[in-house]
Specification:
By secondary structure, this protein is α/β, with parallel strands linked by helices. Helices cover about 40% and strands about 20% of the residues. The protein has two domains: about 5-175, 3-Layer(aba) Sandwich (Aspartate Aminotransferase, domain 2), CATH 3.40.640.10; about 190-325, Aspartate Aminotransferase, domain 1 (Alpha-Beta Complex), CATH 3.90.1150. A seven-stranded mixed beta sheet has the order 1-7-6-5-4-2-3, with helices on both faces. A four-stranded antiparallel beta sheet has the order 8-9-11-10, covered by helices on one side.
């Protein structure tokens, strides 16, 4: 079986097209469907490259956009729809805050207004979440490996027939050599997604009880704001955990020192069960989610959990929390 056939086998979609990256897949999924004078509604919590596409590229082409907060319900989405709206776009889980959007609710709104719905599923992938089961018209996700970048656009006949010439004309498809390599890795990719999800849930539970952690967000933790929705939509919770680390004091210099320490730790994290650690700007947790009311300054950290026996990530994060500069 080819890579595309393997991907379609875990989905209800009928057709797809492979691209050289998930970023290219997003652009190719959106641009052929729009023209000057159209309007797009999208969730603001998406990849940086997607934000640039909506805020800079589309506006320069005469296409209007409105962003919706990841905290908004499906009714809020409808309030942004205009006569010239053509499509709704979002990622779920959302890119940074890990909110779980109401896919079926947004799809129902789209159907009432005859709009296209496109979802970026790169955070968890098709093995753990199939948006086609919830009525999504087209899904974009990453199908690459550590060594090779690749993306895919999945949908039905007429839509793919519209997108395909655009991908080919800009030479944004993936080479046959890389396709064969990734095809061999596809089944392993699914097993790894499950292992990393299990490790991430284990890490999230550990962090939840740690005194230096003010709040934790993970889709399959019962404390997640949309836990029931996540449990319904997703087979497992994915590899991303977001948490707030309590800084040692309110001094701005100490906070900067702590952030520098965490940035430095990203370099060695991969060998210890963590694929990546990102320090995020801005708080993503509500007061209700936080364990300590009025806690000192906090740092939001985005953790991509790797493979291993499940204890590697816990051991490493425990080391970080014990060695944050005083």
């Amino acid at each position: 079986m080819s890579l595309l056939e393997r991907i379609l086998a875990v989905s209800a979609y009928e057709k797809g097209i492979l691209t050289s990256s998930v970023e290219n897949a997003v652009a190719c999924a959106i641009l052929p469907c729009l023209k000057s004078g159209d309007h797009v509604v999208y969730c603001s919590d998406v990849m940086n490259s997607t934000t640039y596409l909506f805020e800079s590229v589309l506006s320069s082409w005469g296409i209007e956009t409105n962003s919706v907060s990841p905290n908004a319900d499906s009714i809020a989405w409808e309030s942004f729809i205009k006569e010239n709206t053509r499509l709704l776009f979002f990622a779920t889980p959302t890119t940074y805050s890990l909110r779980i959007l109401d896919i079926e609710g947004i799809v129902r709104i789209a159907r009432r207004h005859n709009l296209l719905v496109i979802v970026n599923n790169y955070q968890v992938g098709m093995h753990l979440l199939d948006p086609s089961l919830h009525g999504v018209d087209a899904t974009v996700c990453s199908v690459g490996s550590r060594a090779l970048k690749a993306g895919v656009i999945l949908s039905y006949g007429e839509y793919i027939d519209t997108v395909n010439p655009f991908v080919k004309a800009l030479n944004l498809d993936i080479s046959s050599i890389n396709t064969r390599e990734l095809s061999r890795e596809w089944e392993i990719h699914g097993l790894e997604a499950e292992q990393r999800s299990n490790n991430a849930l284990r890490l999230a539970r550990f962090l939840q009880d740690h005194p230096r952690i003010a709040a934790v967000r993970y889709p399959h933790l019962t404390t997640h704001p949309e836990y029931k929705r996540a449990y319904k939509q997703m087979k497992l919770g994915g590899s991303i955990v977001v948490c707030n680390i309590i800084a040692t004091n309110k001094n701005e210099e100490q906070l900067t020192k702590t952030i520098d320490f965490l940035d430095a730790e990203m370099v060695t994290a991969k060998a210890k069960g963590i694929e990546q650690i990102k320090v995020l700007s801005g708080m993503i947790f509500s007061k209700k989610e936080q364990k300590y009311e009025g806690a000192a300054k906090q740092i939001t950290v985005h953790i991509d959990v790797g493979l291993g026996d499940g204890m590697d990530g816990i051991t490493y994060m425990s080391y970080i929390l014990e060695h944050i500069p005083e």
